């Protein structure tokens, strides 16, 4: 199974936070699961650290690539098609990071591991 992990779920997984649901934890740790981390998550995390909205995540943001590699997760680049899809998504949801993850999940037909119910409005399968 291939999944795309949302930024908050990535952080909770990395620090073994109890906020990560049991189902999400099980899927992410399953031997047969390929977990992808979008470049949008790196952008989101570093932006929020810079703005002071993610206290305590400075080291993770600075070592983003090596941290996801240590977790055994794979990088997912942002393609032009993803940018087009994200820009064309209907609705009022304005979070550019969520819109990119939605677009990537749709384009690659991957479920998203994450708590945010906004994904449900865009016909993206969500695991939580």
What does this structure look like?
By secondary structure, the chain is an alpha/beta fold. The chain has a single domain (2-127), classed as 3-Layer(aba) Sandwich (Rossmann fold), CATH 3.40.50. 48% of the residues lie in helices and 12% in strands. The chain is built from seven helices and five strands; from the N terminus they run βααβαααβααββ. Strands 3-2-1-4-5 form a five-stranded parallel β-sheet. The two termini are 15 Å apart. The relative contact order is 0.21.
Write the layout of secondary structure elements.
Blueprint: E1 2-5, H1 7-14, H2 22-29, E2 34-38, H3 39-50, H4 58-62, H5 64-70, E3 74-76, H6 80-88, H7 96-108, E4 112-113, E5 126-127
Parallel strand pairs: 1-2, 1-4, 2-3, 4-5
Helix pairs in contact: 3-7, 6-7
Look at the structure and give the mean pLDDT.
Answer: 96
Shape: globular
Structural class of the helices, strands and pairings? alpha/beta
Biggest β-sheet description: 5 strands, parallel
How far apart, in Å, are the first and last alpha carbons? 15 Å
Number of strands: 5
In short:
This protein is of the alpha/beta class and 128 residues long. It has helices at 7-14, 22-29, 39-50, 58-62, 64-70, 80-88, 96-108; strands at residues 2-5, 34-38, 74-76, 112-113, 126-127.
